[in-house]
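Human: I would love a firmer grasp of how sequence relates to backbone shape in proteins. Take your time, and here it is.
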Amino acid sequence: MADNRSFLGTGIGFPIDVGPDGSVRTAAGEQSITQAIWLILSTSPGERVMNSEFGCGMQDLVFAPNTAATHAQIAHHVQESLLRFEPRIDVLDVRVEASGDLANLLLIAIDYRVRENNALNNLVYPFYITEGISQ
C-alpha cells in the first residue's frame, strides 16, 4: 500500500537519534510537522549561524513576569514564527495558559491545520518562565 502522505515530507527526526541498525532515524507525515514545530519553538533567533533569523523569539521572555501581557507576547512570537517557518500548516489558534501546579510553567496550545489534507491537529508546548525564582 502506497503512503498517500508523502507530500508532507520525510526528514531527519528530532531529536537526532540513531536506530538499532546504525542509521539516522527519520520522521515522516504529521510526525515530521510536529517535530518541525517543536524545533522552531525550541530555537532562538541567532542560534543558527547559517540561518540567524530562524526560530521563535519567545526565549527572550524567560525572565518575564507571569502576566497576561507576557502570555500575549509569547502567543504573538509563536504565531509569527510558525507562519514564517512552517509553510505546511495554517495556524488556527495559539493559547498561552499558566499551569495550575507550577507558577513558572506556561502551556502553549497550538491548533493548526495541515494545508495539503485539511487534517486538524494540536500541540501543547511547555515553556518555563522566571527560571530564577525559587518556590
Notes: The helical segments are 29-42, 68-85. The chain has one domain: 6-128. The chain has a mean pLDDT of 85.
